[in-house]
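so the lab meeting is tmrw and i was supposed to have these ready like two days ago... anyway. pasting both below. for each one the top line is the aa sequence and the line under it is the structure tokens. i havent really looked at them closely yet so no promises
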Amino acid sequence: MTRKENAVAELSGVASTESGMLAIFSPEEFAGVRDQASWAAELGSAEKIRERIVAGGLVPVNIGGDGAWQVVLRADGTGLTEREDRYLMLSSEPYLLVCHGIAHIGGIEEVCAEPEDTGLPLRPGRYSVVVHLIEWEAEPGSRDADGQPAADALPDFVVLLEWDAPLVSDLAPSGPFAPVYRQELMTFDAAQRVSPNC
């Protein structure tokens, strides 16, 4: 993953999975996950993963299959670019992410207390996360002469993170003002495969 070293809070790169889904997560939420056995104990079933989604421990980027995808995490408040919006295919409902200072993305099998990849530094807090699926192949010039994604091709997914509230639970909005977050394993109601952008 590559993090932009300017005012834009953005992380981009290829994320892959052989376990059916990608996940955005904060390592502190998985302090007990340090080997395969502890991963299985905490994330080894669909129900356990869904419990983590409900609690804000992770956000699934899940279209129902293995693969590798170009992903952008963006938390600068600017939303989608004009190009991204033009080729937008699907947008998820907001998910909750509880972040303690850094967000990572990788295969669900990579979720742990000490991930190896570069993360995106964020202000600690509760984030509203929306996953956007981009139809990047529909853009003219998206592939080079060899049929590979062009160097400036759009990503498969753009994930927008918006700070909602502090980590302290009694300061978070409640009652009729509390945000409603998606809690499903599948990111989109009309989930579908895309061609891996790699």
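ok protien two:
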Amino acid sequence: MPSFTLPRAARIARITRTHKVGIAVLAAAGATTGLAVTAAPGSAATTAAHAPAAVKPVSADGMPAVAGAAERPVKASVVDHIKVTAVAKQDRVAEQAASRSTDRPAAPKKYTDNLDGWIRQSLDIMKSKGIPGSYEGLHRNIMRESSGNPEAVNDWDVNAQNGIPSKGLLQVIQPTFDTYHVAGTAHDLTDPVANITAAANYAAHRYGSIDNVNSAY
């Protein structure tokens, strides 16, 4: 059979058409594959699996940080500061009150104006001066000497005959009172407290204590 060769232009045109058909087929195949890949199950999961993991914050000890944990210590610190400040203020107020109490002079002790009060006042003065004696010792001797009368005067004994009668609760003569008078008491022989303390002072020097006196002294 005689050979027949297409003209060059026809060959080019034919090749071009063939190529176009092939390219179209390849394009269609590529589109189908792309659709298949897009719709393939697990593709989203695969993408997510390869996506970088979110970084979670951790605390200083390596444990996962809890939301709001950073604010809690700050809030607790503020509350503690308020408590400490309140306690310090209370301490200052207490110190100031104690200071005022210390600076304020103590109110003078009050005594009743009777034999009991005179003895108790005398005992406090005797204690401050180091003069011994007890309530019982004073009361016992007072009742024997004057029956509790601060104005009692002995006008019959030897002292009275010598012009210096015994006077007061514990029947003290003036020279004895002047010698043993206790500072801080009235300089009056018949003053109840002055008379008792001077007599107790005299008895302490002569008998060791007014408690040791059981008769005229």
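from a quick look at the 2nd one: The chain is about 60% helix and 0% strand. The longest helix spans residues 71-103. will dig more after coffe
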